């Protein structure tokens, strides 16, 4: 039986890893052993930070909503509680956008939340 030479497949695998390591510094970009470690670690960071990105954006939205509602005389917790009592279901991303770009609409929501809290 003929001998199988694996140069083509291993070269293709190496090429794939090296192309993923493009832009790295030092041996991380051109030495397969080091590049493979760097690419694997980069994938771990990417996976972790896709989750962290969602957390940081939610925190940013909450800070913006808090700042907007405090300017109108209601803190974040009471504002969100008032919205739930009023039966208004708007997510934090939209509320944050309203607080920045549509202050009149946000003020109307704050007033509805205040009315719902007062009626409680």
Automatic annotation (TrEMBL):
Pfam families: Ribosomal_L20 (PF00453)
InterPro entries in the cross-refs: Ribosomal_bL20 (IPR005813), RIBOSOMAL_L20_CS (IPR049946), Ribosomal_protein_bL20_C (IPR035566)
Origin superkingdom: Bacteria
GO biological process, alphabetically ordered: ribosomal large subunit assembly; translation
Entry keyword set: Ribonucleoprotein, Ribosomal protein, RNA-binding, rRNA-binding
Stated role: Binds directly to 23S ribosomal RNA and is necessary for the in vitro assembly process of the 50S ribosomal subunit. It is not involved in the protein synthesizing functions of that subunit.
Protein name (Swiss-Prot/TrEMBL): Large ribosomal subunit protein bL20
Protein's organism: Temperatibacter marinus
Phylogenetic classification of the source organism: Bacteria, Pseudomonadati, Pseudomonadota, Alphaproteobacteria, Kordiimonadales
Gene name as annotated: rplT
């Amino acid at each position: 039986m003929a001998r199988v030479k694996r140069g083509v497949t291993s070269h293709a695998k190496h090429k794939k890893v090296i192309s993923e390591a493009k832009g790295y510094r030092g041996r991380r970009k051109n030495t397969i052993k080091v590049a493979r470690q760097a690419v694997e670690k980069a994938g771990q960071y990417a996976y972790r930070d896709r989750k962290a990105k969602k957390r940081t954006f939610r925190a940013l939205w909450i800070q913006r909503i808090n700042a907007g509602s405090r300017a109108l005389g209601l803190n974040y917790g009471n504002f969100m509680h008032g919205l739930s009592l009023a039966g208004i279901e708007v997510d934090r991303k939209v509320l944050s956008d309203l607080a920045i770009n549509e202050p009149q609409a946000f003020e109307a929501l704050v007033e509805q939340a205040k009315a719902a809290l007062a009626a409680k």
